[in-house]
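ESCALATION

Customer reports they have been waiting on this structure for their group meeting. Please prioritize. Original submission:
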Amino acid sequence: MDQSRAPLYEAVVKYTEREMVPFHMPGHTCGKGAPLVFKDFFGKEFFKFDLTEVSGLDYLHYAHGVIREAEELAADLYKTRSTFFLVNGTTSGIHAMILSTLKKGEKIIIGRNSHRSVVGGIILSGAIPIFVQPAYNEDFGIITNITPLSLERAIKENPDTKAVLITTPNYYGLQGRIERMIELSHSHNLVVLVDEAHGAHFPFHPLFPKSAIEYGADAVVQSAHKTLPTLTQTSLLHIVSERLKRDKVEQILGVIETSSPSYIFMTIMDVMRREMALNGKELWNEAVEVASYAREEISKIPGFRVITEEIVNGNDINAFDPIKLTINVEELGYSGFEVEAYLNENNIEIELSDLRNVLLFVTIGIEKKDVDQLIAVLRDLQPREKKDKERIPSFPEAGIQVLSPSDAFNSDYEVIKLRESVGRVSWGFVSPYPPGIPVLVPGMEITEEEVHFIEVFEKRGAMVQGPIGKVDGIYVRVVKDM
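Update from on-call: job pushed to the front of the queue and completed.
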C-alpha cells in the first residue's frame, strides 16, 4: 500500500477548505464560538479539525471510507490482519480483546503485573482470572515479567482455561520471553492476547525488541501515545490471527468506546503512521543515540545506577528497550518519589518514580541538550548522611480469588480501615499509580502482605489510587457481609 498517503488527514483538510456553514456539533462551531483564550493559544485553525461525522469523513464504528483506508494503512505497516484506531486509550483495546474472547465463567490466565484495565475487562466479561506471579529483580527493586515456566504451570493447573493475556514489555522497557510463551499457549489451544502498551514503536528501529505481532500473538494492543508522536488517549488494537473475528471486535468497540470520536485524535494517528512509515528509523536513530548518551553519562555520577542491556537474562527478561531510562537512586539514600520531587523543583518532569528508581522516556523530540540539563541537576543532588534501612517489599502474590471480580463488583460494600481488612474480600481496586498494577483486586481475599505493601507505599509518599484517606488512617472498600 502507498504509505506516503494519509487519507483521513487529506479528507479533513479538503473538507475544511470547503468552508461549510456548520449547523452541527461540536458547539464551538469550527472554532467561531471557542473561548478567546483558547483561540489565542491554539490558533483558530486547530478547531477546524475538531469535527463530527460530517459528509465524506466516514464513521469510526462503521468505517467504510477514509477512516477504514487509514486503518488499513496502519495494518499494512504493522503487518496485521486488521488494525483499529482507539480514541479511548489502550484500556478500551484491552476490554475489547477480553470481551471478544471470553464469556462469563470462562478462565483467563493473566500476570499479576497486569494493568488494572485488564481486571476491568474481566469484570465486564464475567470471566475468572488466574494470576501468575511475575519475576522480581532484586537489584533494581522492580517486577519484570511472567516466565514460560510459571505460565506452563498455570496452564497445567487450569486445563479448562480459554485464553492468556500477557503484559510485556513492562513500564521499564523489559520484555519477557514472549515468543516462547505464545508458542506454549498455542500448543494448548489458548487464545493469546498481549498488552504491549509500551511497544508501539518497536517496528521502527532494529535495536528495539520485536513486537508480539511478529511472534504470532492473536491480538495486540499498543498505546501509541506513550512513545509515538501522537496525542494522549490514542492507541492501536491489532487483530493478528483468525481466532478473533474482526466484525465482533468492531461491534464491541462500538459499545465500549465513545460514539463521538475525536477527529483530531484519529487524524493525528493517520499522520503519525505515515511519519513512522516514511521516516521512522531516521527519527528513532537520534532518540536511541541520545538515550545511550544519557545512560553513559549518568552512570558516571556517584550514587546513580542505570538499567542497561546487561539486565537481559533470557528468562524473565529477553529484550531491553533502549529508549527507557531507568535510574536507581537508593545509594544516595532517597526514594524515587523524593528524587522526582527534586527534579520537578528543577524544571524536569519525568514519567514515573517508585521506591528505588525514577523512569524517563527518551522519545522523538528529546535532544542532547535536554539530557545535559538533566545531568547537571542530578550532579547537584547531594547524598543523604542517614539512609533509610527499611527493606522495600517485593510485589505481593495474589490472594485467593474468593469471588469473580464481576460478582464482587456487583455486591454491596462497606468501608473499613486498611489494617483491619486482612482476611476480608476486596470490593474495589487499590493500585500504586503509575504503573496502575492493582495490589487489591475485586473478589480477592486481602492478605497481610498486601496490606503491608500498601502501607509502605503510602508512607513513602507514592500515589496510591483506591484507598480512602481519613484523619484517623487509610480505609478500603470490602465486600459486605463476607
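Sent to customer with the following note: The two ends are 58 Å apart (CA to CA).
Escalation resolved.
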